[in-house]
Amino acid sequence: MQTQEMIASHPDVRGNVNKALLAAIDAAYACAQTCTSCADACLAEEMVAQLRQCIRLNLDCADVCAATATLSNRRTGSDEEVIRKMLDACATACRLCGDECQRHASMHEHCRICAESCRRCQTACQDALKTM
Amino acid sequence: MQTQEMIASHPDVRGNVNKALLAAIDAAYACAQTCTSCADACLAEEMVAQLRQCIRLNLDCADVCAATATLSNRRTGSDEEVIRKMLDACATACRLCGDECQRHASMHEHCRICAESCRRCQTACQDALKTM
Amino acid sequence: MQTQEMIASHPDVRGNVNKALLAAIDAAYACAQTCTSCADACLAEEMVAQLRQCIRLNLDCADVCAATATLSNRRTGSDEEVIRKMLDACATACRLCGDECQRHASMHEHCRICAESCRRCQTACQDALKTM
Amino acid sequence: MQTQEMIASHPDVRGNVNKALLAAIDAAYACAQTCTSCADACLAEEMVAQLRQCIRLNLDCADVCAATATLSNRRTGSDEEVIRKMLDACATACRLCGDECQRHASMHEHCRICAESCRRCQTACQDALKTM
């Protein structure tokens, strides 16, 4: 990802980037990927019936992460109130999804990796929130 | 949109739908459309330089509305905390975008229609929040 | 949805809308809703293990429909080649998903409604393609 | 991004990943980021009126890349026809957007970086298509 180079080249930013927000953007794209992939892998597991809640949270978390990453890229004008609400929603979605994935982490490698990705994104969103 | 028929046929819902949440889903899909379209129409206006903030808010609002509509469709398992946070983020995005569009409503028909769509979605999200 | 009013108010369109493309946009938003909802309802069914392919196609179809609807709204500048490719991809996704949902239509009301929604969107995308 | 580890842990994949498709997924997420960011940076440029076509193509390309990345993650069941159509649509969107960004590359660093990102994603999608 070239998030930093792109946002640093924005005419209103001119190199003065918010590093915590950059980290949240990258973590949110990465978490959208792991959650989409974990929902799909859970669906293929023999014990799919016991993974319904995990799939639900994965799909919701992927949607919130993708939207949060996308809109957090923008620096034209201002919309800080919405970024803050979305970072908060994203941290919540990642906390809930990460907790659920953790329950299956010893059994399913995809859940283990996804739980870590959710934790990283949750922390990155919380850190970004402190700067705004 | 057949949101009501679809959600009513979910095995865990069995006809017992939350009408306020249904209304928020439909309003959010409609608002994703108007905001995407308003951003695009503003970009084509001669006075585009004065519409930058409107375009920014339109794009952000479209992203939040699309994510909110999508995840609010789900009824398997539960994820109420995330739906609530997203309904709240969506109401905020719609309020800010609706206010900005309203400023250009007398000059641009697309801003006038979009401002109304944002108001409807803001109200629908707030009404849905009261039921959850 | 106020797709027609919005696009008719675009400064480069000035009322001269492509009605077949408008119909495809509305059908694609509606199909994104039914497919998202059908994936979720299938996941909650007792026989979820036999509905894996249906869920997969529903999720893919929802993603293609949402992207197709969003970008088909735009009239600033031009990008017809991409709209055509996406209308074609969307018609394909809807055909495959509609066929699969049809197989479960007698058993699951959500699959029956979703199959119809996929058919409508497939036809609308094919009709729009003929005009471009 | 942990795309490889996630897809390798899918129960139907068991380590036997398609490396060209993995590369396309990562390139498409990265290109969704650069295109979203380039549209936003172009909008803030003083010469925004001359960058309308670039913004339009950036927004369309971001939408196609995000959808292509998301659905290409899935391995449950099969939907190869749709993945192929989307990889093709994505290569087209990236070619057109990359060409337009290249025209502004000497003037705007964000267009230069985005043009490169579009080229990488176009090539990665074409390479993945050859394997399917």
What are the defining features of this structure?
homotetramer; 132 residues; mainly alpha; 5 helices
Structure description:
The structure is a homotetramer of 132-residue chains. The longest helix of chain A has 26 residues, at 19-44. The two termini of chain A are 23 Å apart. Helix content of chain A is 75%, strand content 0%. With 132 residues, the first copy, chain A, is mainly α. Chain A is elongated and about 50 Å long. The A-D interface holds A 1-3, 5-7, 9-12, 25, 29-30, 32-34, 36-38, 40-41, 43-46, 62, 66, 69-70, 73-76, 108-110, 113-114, 117 and D 1-3, 5-7, 9-12, 25, 29-30, 32-34, 36-38, 40-41, 43-46, 62, 66, 69-70, 73-76, 108-110, 113-114, 117.
Mean of all residue-level pLDDT scores of chain A: 97
**Oligomeric state as shown:** homotetramer
Number of helices of chain A: 5
Q: Label the overall shape of chain A.
A: elongated
What is the radius of gyration of chain A? Answer: 16 Å
Largest sheet of chain A: none
| Share of helical residues of chain A | over 70%
Order of H and E elements of chain A: HHHHH
Structural class of chain A: mainly alpha
For the secondary structure, the number of strands of chain A is: 0
Span between N and C termini of chain A?
23 Å
Helix-strand layout with pairing:
4 copies of one chain form a homotetramer.
Chain A: H1 3-8, H2 19-44, H3 52-72, H4 80-103, H5 109-130
